[in-house]
Design brief:
Protein name: FBP domain-containing protein
InterPro entries: EF-G-binding_C
Strand content: 25-35%
Number of domains: 1
Mean pLDDT: 91
Strand order of the largest sheet: 1-2-3
Pfam families: FBP_C (PF16571)
Radius of gyration: 15 Å
Bound molecules: zinc ion
Distance between the termini: 23 Å
Order of helices and strands: HHEEEEEEHEHH
Shape: globular
Amino acid sequence: MKPLTEQEIRTAFVNCTKGEAKRLAVPRDLADVPWADLDYLGWRDPQAPGRAYLVAELDGLARAVALRSPTTAGGHMRRSMCSICVTTHTGGVSLMVAPKAGRAGQQGNSVGLYLCSDLSCSLYVRGIKDAGAGARLHETITPEEKIQRTVANIAAFVAKVTA
Ligand SMILES: [Zn+2]
């Protein structure tokens, strides 16, 4: 994805107030982020592990989503599959919940998804990060197709949040 600045990320948030977007924790090392290897940038708030954020491109525009992650690491060790990158981890997938943008979100509507707990889908898809033995389904599609699927999945999620 295209590199983003802290300001661009803060203004891209779709499902929190402007004040929240100004205050929330954005990674400090944005210059060191391997943007070319990312389908989305995801991170957790180091001060509040139950809060996570991601920014992705939808129709060429950066869109950032605030997430709540009620289950913290070490909770359940069931094998589960990330719905974005289709990697299976033991205890490494979290249910994340995003309030919907605008009025729907104010009324309490949200969108849930199962996501790699470390928000590193892009790196698993590219084989840069290893989720352990048996982590990947035996699939016949090419790495490029897996990347396209990840991009499509994250875009579909962001579209659901903004819908
Ligand atoms: Zn994933």
